[in-house]
Structure formats: C-alpha cells, structure tokens
C-alpha cells in the first residue's frame, strides 16, 4: 500500500497539480493586494474618498445595552465588499485571459515553426520493393 501511495503521489500530474495550487494561492494574494491596496484607493479617490468596504445598507441597527456595549450586532447588507469582490474577479479574469492569450500565441508560433521545419525536411526515400508492392496494390484495387 505504501508503494502504491508513493507512486500515486510522485506521479507527474499530482505534483503538477500541487505546484499549480501553490502558485494559484500566491497569485490570489497578489491580486487581492492589487485590488485592495492599489486599485480601490484610486477608485475611492475618484469617488471623493468613498471607502467601498464601508458601504452598506443597515436593515436593523445594533442594539446597545446600558453600558454602551453591543448587545445585538447590526444586520446589514455589505454591498461595498461585494463591489470589491467583483472588481477582484474582473482583474483575475483579465489577467488569466491575457496569460492564456500569450500561451496560445506562443503555441501557434511553435506549431507554425514545427510545420515549417517538417515541410523543409526531405520526404523519406521509399525502398524499391515497397514502391513495387504499393504499385501492385494500387493496380489490384483499380482492377475491381
């Protein structure tokens, strides 16, 4: 069982998947920081300093006790956080689109280069006996 487990873990696909998950997690942190620390402050500056994370619609205000402590928290719809999440999604989608577009363009260039290389290669010489057998096969096929 240990041997099978070891074979499974060290199989190329599993390792590639693990590396992909680690890179994706790091990438998500970078994009979240880009949105939170770079883009949203710019949008806030354009919208007269509005902090999107603070935007909400309060359905029920918080209830305070006699000491001024919160007895019941407010019930609110935090649409500003939703706006941040949508912007994060759009940025991630844009970056992934650009990366996939670059990869596809590189693949097309490599395929074209490979086709050109194959086209430039001389056709393999057919041995005389194979050519004769091919000719006989074609004659028999056409005689039917």
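^ structure tokens above, recovered residues below v
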């Amino acid at each position: 069982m240990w041997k099978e487990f070891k074979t499974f873990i060290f199989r190329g696909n599993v390792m590639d998947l693990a590396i992909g998950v680690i890179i994706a997690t790091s990438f998500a942190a970078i994009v979240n920081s880009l949105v939170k620390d770079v883009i949203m402050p710019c949008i806030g500056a354009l919208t007269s300093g509005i902090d999107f994370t603070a935007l909400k619609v309060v359905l029920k205000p918080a209830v305070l006790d006699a000491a001024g402590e919160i007895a019941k928290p407010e019930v609110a719809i935090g649409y500003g956080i939703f706006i941040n999440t949508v912007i994060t999604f759009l940025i991630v989608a844009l970056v992934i689109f650009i990366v996939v577009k670059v990869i596809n363009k590189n693949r097309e260039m490599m395929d074209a280069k490979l086709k050109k290389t194959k086209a430039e290669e001389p056709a393999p010489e057919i041995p005389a006996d194979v050519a004769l057998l091919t000719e006989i096969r074609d004659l028999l096929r056409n005689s039917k």
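The first helix runs from residue 2 to 9.
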